[in-house]
Amino acid sequence: MWKFLLLLAAVGTLPAASVGEQVYLTTVDNWSFWKIRATGPMTDDNVKVTCEAAGMRYPCFRPGADGCGEFYWASDCIKFHHIQCTTLKALSSELCGHTDGHGEQCQPLDDTFVYNPAWYDDSAYGVDFETHDWGLQGADYNNMYALCAAPTCGRSPCAHGTCTDDTGGYTCSCENGWEGTNCDQNIDECASFPCAHGACNDTIGSFTCSCDNGWTGLNCDQDIDECASSPCWLGGTCLDHVNGYSCVCLKDVTGRNCETGTTLFNTKSNDKEVVRTVTSQ
C-alpha cells in the first residue's frame, strides 16, 4: 500500500510531457508572450518543460534587463527590456494598461505562473485574478498556465512570406500574390477588372480571362477578325463585327457569303482589257 502511494506521489510530480492549451498574450521587446496549460504541479521544472515542449523559451520573475538587477532571474531565462522590473507587471502594463498589484489585477494573466529561480520548493510564482491573490507557490497548484515566450518570428507568423524581427514586433515580406500583416490574404488580381470583355479568374499572383465570344488576348481586349478567312465569295466586301461579319455583294450576287450569282471581273492581259464572267451556284 505504501509503495502504491509513493508511486502515485512520484507520478504526480512528473513534469508535463505534452503541449496543452496555448493563449497568446502580448509582444514585448521582440518577444511574444504566451501562457500554456501545464500538467501537474506548477514548479519551475514543469514550467520549463512545458515551454520547451511548445518550442518556446521562458521568462523569469524578473526580466533580467539592465537596471532591474538579476535577483530572481537566471541566465537560461530570456532577457527583455521594459519600464517595469517584474515580468508580470510588465505584461499587465501591456495587456491591461496598469500595473496595479503584482499582475493579479489583470484578467488575461489569471492562473499564470512564471519561472522564479531560488524560490520556495522549486515553486513558480503565480497570480489569480478571480481571488486577486499573488505570490502563489506553484508547488501547491496543479494544471495551471506556464508563462512562455518566443522570438516574434519563432512561431512563423508569416503564412506566405519571410519574417523579420523588429523591436517590439515583426514584419512580413510577402510572396507574390499575398498581402496583410501576416501575408495570409490573397491579393485579388481581378479587383481592377483587367478583362475588358470577359470573366476574370483570380489565381495566386496573377489572373486569367475567359473571353466573351468574338474577343481574344490576355485581357480579352482584341477583337477577333472574322474577315481574316475571306468568307465573302465572288468579289464581295467583308465587314468585320464583334463575333461575326457581313458581306457587301457585287451586283447580281446574293447569299450571306456572296456565294450565288454572276459577276464580271475586269483584268488586263497584254495591255488589253479582258472581261471574264464567273458564275457560282
From TrEMBL:
**Taxonomic classification:** Eukaryota, Metazoa, Chordata, Cephalochordata, Leptocardii
Question: What name does the UniProt record give this protein?
Answer: Neurogenic locus notch homolog protein 3-like
Domain (EGF-like) spans: 149-184, 186-221, 223-259
Question: Its gene?
Answer: LOC118429342
UniProt entry tagged with the keyword ATP-binding: no
Q: Which UniProt keywords apply?
A: Disulfide bond, EGF-like domain, Glycoprotein, Repeat, Signal
Xref: CDD domains = EGF_CA (cd00054)
Molecular function GO labels: calcium ion binding; Notch binding
**Gene Ontology process terms (BP):** Notch signaling pathway
This protein's superkingdom? Answer: Eukaryota
